[in-house]
């Protein structure tokens, strides 16, 4: 998801302008905040699979329901207090992050799930990929005035640096070996044809 989201995050205004010609107020900010939330909730499915495999889903489902309810209530309160409209998306992002933490704690309670290992082997790797992938494409997004050059350079550097970051930070040695073997086999099969 990050592979596709990074260029969109950096080129939101350009993409929306090409699509709509007239960029409505706040649509760029809303789009970026929704993509950030999406990047957080992509961590949910694997955790949900583990929880469902236990057969003890009551607390897990209750946590999800309460998360939705609190998001709604906090958004309602923020509007009543006069916060700007984009604050709803900030609440959504915060609740998604809290929801991830709550899901991990439930798994720890149900299965003695190793949260430290998950943070080390998954979340820190994801964070490392994010940190290493963003700077060069971000620089290109601010560097060019010409939208075509900016679009092409940001897309190219986003793909390149995301792949490099995933290869060296996101994957373990055995995973890199597996992918290297698959790439070599694919190249050999193409040469034979």
Overview of this protein structure:
The chain is an all-alpha fold. The protein is built from ten helices and no strands. It has helices at 2-10, 12-20, 27-41, 44-54, 58-80, 87-111, 115-133, 135-143, 147-170, 173-192. The radius of gyration is 20 Å and the shape is flat. The mean pLDDT is 89.
Described by strand count, sense and barrel closure, the largest sheet is:
none
Helix content: over 70%
Average pLDDT confidence is 89
Which structural class do you get from the secondary structure elements?
mainly alpha
* Count of individual helical segments: 10
Low-confidence stretches: none
Radius of gyration using CA atoms only: 20 Å
Using DSSP, what is the number of strands? 0
Secondary-structure element order, N to C: HHHHHHHHHH
Q: Determine the oligomeric state from the structure.
A: single chain
Percent range for β-strand residues: under 5%
**Straight-line N-to-C gap:** 33 Å
Shape: flat
Question: Summary?
Answer:
85% of the residues lie in helices and 0% in strands. The chain has 193 residues and is an all-alpha fold.
